[in-house]
Amino acid sequence: MELLGIKFAPLFVPMERRLQTLAAAAWFILFVFGGFVGWILVYHVLFTRFYPLAILYLLWMAYDQKVYIHGGRRSEWVRNWSCWHYMREYFPIGLVKLEDLPADKNYLFCGYPHGMLCSGAFGNFVAASPEFKRLFPGLTTYLLTLNVHFNMPIFRELLLCLGSCSSSRESMTYLLGHPEKGKAVVLMVGGASESLYCHPGSYKIILKRRKGFIRVALETGAPLVPVFSFGETDVFDQVSNPPGSWLLWLQSTLKKVLGVAPCIPLGRGIFQYSFGIAPRRTPITTVVGRPIMLPQEPNPSNELVDKYHKIFMEELMELFETHKGKYLEDPKTKLIIE
């Protein structure tokens, strides 16, 4: 039904779909605003009679700083919450593997595109996806994110329980070089900056200048695995930010200060499809490519880094071109590498 230009959802919708929509909207709101809400709660408690609890928690945060660099503190109970199942089924989010990955190695999953909030990566690698366990038995996933997120009270505990760790060089080296094998370390190489390119049907990624992950992979001898989530950029549009605009300047400036790109998402609502901050119900298929085997070099030269960076770009482009006809509406879509 459409009224005043707003397309409303049907009045009678199966409860399963309602729960999926609620879970997807709650997921987005939680991961966009959760850190700020955590700070507000702690600040509020500091001015109540329960202030000793807030002080003790802040002291605990200071003491616990290294945990997200040294493997984290995951909880399978949290990773198996029902809300993540409903969130995955909302889009839905699928997973495809091109080759077996034996659990006798640690792997660096290099994910693209970042999109607005890494929906495909979260559904497949953060929440306890039964599909991942079936396709990649023996592997344990660690999604890497910025240190700033682990400095946000309460919210950091959720990230740790979900198996997230720091995207710092020290953290990557610790995980990939760990003697206990079977780790799939997931890095969204384009980072938060790439979210500024998120528009439906568009695939523009940041890779040409990103070479640090290649160096870490060479130092630890971890195979590189290109990963691409088709449909990721269709989940949200955003307020237009053309080159040279004041909005893009403001977003880029805040990105440098806060570490996150403050996009203005254009999605849908809970009961209507025309506007809102809930993600759109569009399929996302994450394809895990073939591993690129690297030699272990404690001090890799720039030439060696450039060599495998070029190989990775070629493999990622081939993965995109090979599978875009299966998972994208427009088979002529181009992958733009910046």
UniProtKB/TrEMBL annotation:
<keyword id="KW-0012">Acyltransferase</keyword>
<keyword id="KW-0256">Endoplasmic reticulum</keyword>
<feature type="transmembrane region" description="Helical">
    <location>
        <begin position="21"/>
        <end position="40"/>
    </location>
</feature>
<dbReference type="GO" id="GO:0019432">
    <property type="term" value="P:triglyceride biosynthetic process"/>
</dbReference>
<keyword id="KW-0443">Lipid metabolism</keyword>
<keyword id="KW-0444">Lipid biosynthesis</keyword>
<keyword id="KW-0808">Transferase</keyword>
<dbReference type="GO" id="GO:0005789">
    <property type="term" value="C:endoplasmic reticulum membrane"/>
</dbReference>
<dbReference type="InterPro" id="IPR007130">
    <property type="entry name" value="DAGAT"/>
</dbReference>
<dbReference type="GO" id="GO:0004144">
    <property type="term" value="F:diacylglycerol O-acyltransferase activity"/>
</dbReference>
<keyword id="KW-0812">Transmembrane</keyword>
<dbReference type="Pfam" id="PF03982">
    <property type="entry name" value="DAGAT"/>
</dbReference>
<keyword id="KW-1133">Transmembrane helix</keyword>
<keyword id="KW-0472">Membrane</keyword>
<protein>
    <recommendedName>
        <fullName>Acyltransferase</fullName>
        <ecNumber>2.3.1.-</ecNumber>
    </recommendedName>
</protein>
<comment type="similarity">
    <text>Belongs to the diacylglycerol acyltransferase family.</text>
</comment>
